Amino acid sequence: MWKTIAGLQIPAASLAELQSNYLNQATALWNASLQSSLGAPAAAPKPLGDRRFASPAWSANPASAFMAQLYLLNANTLQQMADKVEGEDKARARVRFAVQQFVDAAAPSNFLALNPEAQALALESKGESLSKGMQLLWDDLQRGHVSQTDESAFEVGRNVATTAGDVVFENDFFQLIEYKPLTDKVFERPLLFVPPCINKYYILDLQPDNSLIRYAVEQGHRLFVISWRNPDASCVAWTWDDYIEHAAIKAISVVQEISGAKTIDTLGFCVGGTILSTALGVLAARGEQPAASVTLLTTLIDFTSNGILDIFVDEPSVKKREATIGLQSPKGPGLLKGQELGSTFSMLRPNDLVWNYVVGNYLKGEAPPAFDLLYWNGDSTNMSGPMYCWYLRHTYLQNELKIPGRLTVCGEALDLGKIKAPVYIYGSREDHIVPWDAAYRSTQVFKGERRYVLGASGHIAGVINPPAKKKRSHWIGKSSSLPAAADDWLATATEQPGSWWTDWSAWLAAHAGALKPAPKAPGSRKYKPIEPAPGRYVQQKA
To answer: Domain Poly-beta-hydroxybutyrate polymerase N-terminal, which positions (predicted)?
Structure first.
């Protein structure tokens, strides 16, 4: 990475312009501050436009106000410099990312000696805020991460992941949950959810009013959901093929056996969608077409360009992972710890997910409030090294999943174009993990009936958007045409108010078959209930 960055430079003309603009703005800022300190009537202060400095304590103290404004000027100039750098695209993206990390970390609000709001709070509380902050810091050191919520306020199965159901199958890789029907009749084809294995499944079942799981059951679907095992030291040798054969494909066959249905509806979220698509591609190569429909939520299939995550992946970085936790490791395979993965994702939005809590927790002594989404976000999962290394190399680095016949998975030449099921593809417009246009590229991989829908907001908030709340909006194409370029599709798409869930529900109902009486008991004679949902696997800590 440093070799690529070392060769970058800023054009002389652009640098000169930036320097001139900076000097002019810095001089104006200094003169305004000097006049104010000498008692000259000052103009009404302009809002800083940054919530880190929104407290009146920053504007009440001239030195603090000057420092905040100077920081914002410096930060803006550094970011402009990063934007002007000439060189290879990935190297330039790395420069921008590194500059953003530095800029966010250097904010005066992050330091007690420079934060007038935290200082005032310490004086008002006679040091109690600092005492509480030190206690919160000590507690987080014991946990190994910065707390984003009151973790004691939640318990899986008690007030998150509460939709009623039973575990009807388990193996070393996953538990399969069947949910209790909430309607007298259900569609004849069951529905299988494949969540991401890098997170726990209950993002789809946080609370009754925002649960996609509960919503699907309420719509009359006999729903099964994979709950992944949180890998430990006994799982370090698990491969991508293992996840496909012993988890996704096995879950499909168990759902078919329990329901008696020849074909089932399927849904994959994020990496779960990549796993589901791979499994269906393997089955297609074996002459099997078990899916009546496929729904892919914020899923990558074509990894041509994937936003900020691309900066972390190149040949040297992948080789390093392979040599430390992959099958090629001299010490044997290992685990990618959940905390490392969680920290990486947090640093994609450092102000919101790191420094905001450093300031609130430690400088102000304010314990973070209870928030179910952030509790889930901190409930991390490990990944087996070989599986993770295969995924990095063959998708993010070499982008081979979309190429017919390029990969062999579970002994089969993979061609996702051979999957005959209709596909519903969803992307979130502000998604920084799976950019919406990257999700759209899946429309060019599958060959059958396809529908693309774009939702507002980000990777999680865009997906978890129940209709009853009447929030956000979504975009639907004016026709069934899916041009190669995502922007061409968006140019003719129409914005619809509210959640995309209703559009998906109507689409899914058309592929779910006739209605029949709901089953009176979970599982079957062969697959008897093992324990109530949410089951043991989801409660395992990384």
So the answer is: 50-216
